[in-house]
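User: My instructor asked us to take a sequence, write out its structure as tokens, and then describe one feature of it. I'm not sure where to start. Here is the sequence I was given:
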Amino acid sequence: MKSNQLPLLTAVLLFAAIETAQGAQTPNSYDCVGKNIHATLNIGTSKAEVSILPTQTSLSLQIGKKSYSFSEAELTKESTLIGDLWEAPLNFVTDVYINHASLLIPSVLVDNAPVEFESRLILTHVSTPFVATPPAGVVNTSRFIPVKCSASMLYY
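Assistant: Let's start with the prediction itself. The structure tokens for your sequence are:
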């Protein structure tokens, strides 16, 4: 091997080692589509530092003709056995009801290409009446809407 080829070989081997060390990663961007539904979730680091992740988590929802946009402060995340449940309030009337949307994101890993999976957007109506006696029957109704999602890594 010629001595002038050594730096090129070193660079190629270093690049291969870095790629192998990174391997599969937890995605930071999800795009989900269903019947009259479009949801985009970008997960941030919550730190003001230079990173490959966005600094703030955000969720954008299109449900029918209505559009919603939520920042990190408005989102609730609950880890479950089947994935993370990201929840946001859609609307409410004090002492009457709360409507909220929840997007189920299972644990997936991405390598170089986006990963496709199926999930659910859950729309829940929670009755919060301020009455002396509790209401009879189903109080909190939910609709489970199937969505097809794509998970990927976005670099900022």
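For the description part of your assignment, you could build on this observation: Residues 3-21 have pLDDT under 50 and may be disordered. Try explaining in your own words what that tells you about the chain.
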